[in-house]
């Protein structure tokens, strides 16, 4: 009996040590992100390239550095929980199963499908092909020794892993992402509109001036800049979700007269204007076409619809 209690205590200590190590890793990631932000802000920008700079140049960048330097340990911990972890928490487990030797047949099937997807002459067929393949894969996984013990939630996550793997595979998005003339024109039109609104400041959107000094604003802008760095719809939705969570955290700290829900949309509009991710119209179509239909709902998709609303507002925004 004593031995069992000792084993139980050791197990509890190990779990606590693992959780402490996990949080330390998240803090390190957050500190690394903020260090990079400081370097970018020193040249007047918060993203990669001239199109993602704060308008106002070096003075605005210096203000961003000052706000980042004001971060206390508690705020840094909050940021690490919001954006320090992997974009998709389940993806590591997916990869572990997918690259197992016992999954060789599944892997060959996926790669064969990717080759077919890349070579189709009519890209309009691609969304239906992907959804049909994932439905067939679900039946396969329910019988496969590496996946058959998954519960329904785990199986959904694994199918998200397959979707992400396929749509992130080199060459896939190049063949399918916003290739039509209409898509290119819509992207160019929206990008030109965002560029034309370079002068918009917080007061134009009825936002309190103190938001300008918040380090969370800088971090939200930088998070949204990373939209262009990922391909899979699940990744893009996650980045938008994290951006909104950072904004809501900022608003909860700074607004005494309005709720975060009231101020989320105008703040998100401001963040989009400062981040200016490219090909936004194509991104909306890409997510709606290729994300599994059963995942186009819930909390994260709600924030995606908020993002869509913000873009719709900006398209007609006139001062």
Labels describing this entry:
mainly alpha
Number of helices: 14
> Cα distance, first to last residue?
75 Å
Low-pLDDT regions: 44-59
How many beta-strand runs? 0
Large-scale geometry: globular
**Could you tell me the strand content as a percent range?**
under 5%
Radius of gyration: 22 Å
How much helix, percentage-wise, in residues? 55-70%
Largest sheet: none
Give the SSE string: HHHHHHHHHHHHHH
Structural class: mainly alpha
- Please tell me the overall pLDDT: 81
Structural features, described:
There is one protein chain. This protein has 319 residues and is mostly helical. It has 14 helices and no strands. The protein has helices at 2-41, 57-69, 73-83, 91-98, 104-119, 126-143, 152-168, 172-176, 181-196, 215-225, 233-254, 260-275, 280-290, 298-316. Helix 3 (73-83) runs antiparallel to helix 11 (233-254) and helix 4 crosses helix 7. The longest helix has 40 residues, at 2-41.
Any chance you could write out the topology, listing elements then pairs?
Elements: H1 2-41, H2 57-69, H3 73-83, H4 91-98, H5 104-119, H6 126-143, H7 152-168, H8 172-176, H9 181-196, H10 215-225, H11 233-254, H12 260-275, H13 280-290, H14 298-316
What is this structure, in a nutshell?
The chain is mainly α and 319 residues long. The protein has 14 helices and no strands.
């Amino acid at each position: 009996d004593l031995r069992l209690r000792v084993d139980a205590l050791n197990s509890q200590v190990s779990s606590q040590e693992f959780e402490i190590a996990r949080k330390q890793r998240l803090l390190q990631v957050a500190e690394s992100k903020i260090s990079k932000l400081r370097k970018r802000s020193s040249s007047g920008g918060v993203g990669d390239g001239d199109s993602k700079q704060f308008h106002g140049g070096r003075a605005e960048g210096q203000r961003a550095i000052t706000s980042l330097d004001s971060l206390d340990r508690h705020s840094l911990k909050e940021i690490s929980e919001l954006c320090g972890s992997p974009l998709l928490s389940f993806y590591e487990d997916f990869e572990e199963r997918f690259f197992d030797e016992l999954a060789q047949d599944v892997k060959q099937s996926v790669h064969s499908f990717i080759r077919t997807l890349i070579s189709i002459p009519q890209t309009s067929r691609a969304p239906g092909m992907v959804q049909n393949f994932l439905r067939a894969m679900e039946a396969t996984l329910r019988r496969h020794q590496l996946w058959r013990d998954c519960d329904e939630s785990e199986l959904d996550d694994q199918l998200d892993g397959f979707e992400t793997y396929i749509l992130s595979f080199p060459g896939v998005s190049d063949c399918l992402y916003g290739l039509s003339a209409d898509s290119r024109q819509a992207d160019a039109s929206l990008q030109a509109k965002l560029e034309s609104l370079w002068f918009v400041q917080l007061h134009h959107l009825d936002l309190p001036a103190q938001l300008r000094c918040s380090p969370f604003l800088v971090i939200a802008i930088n998070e949204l800049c990373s939209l262009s760095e990922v391909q899979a719809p699940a990744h893009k939705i996650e980045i938008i979700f994290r951006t909104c969570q950072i904004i809501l955290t900022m608003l909860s700290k700074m607004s005494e007269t309005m709720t975060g829900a009231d101020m989320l949309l105008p703040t998100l509009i401001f963040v989009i204007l400062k981040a200016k991710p490219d090909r936004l119209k194509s991104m909306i179509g890409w997510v709606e076409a290729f994300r599994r239909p059963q995942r186009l709902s819930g909390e994260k998709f709600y924030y995606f619809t908020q993002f869509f609303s913000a873009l719709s507002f900006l398209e007609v925004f006139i001062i």
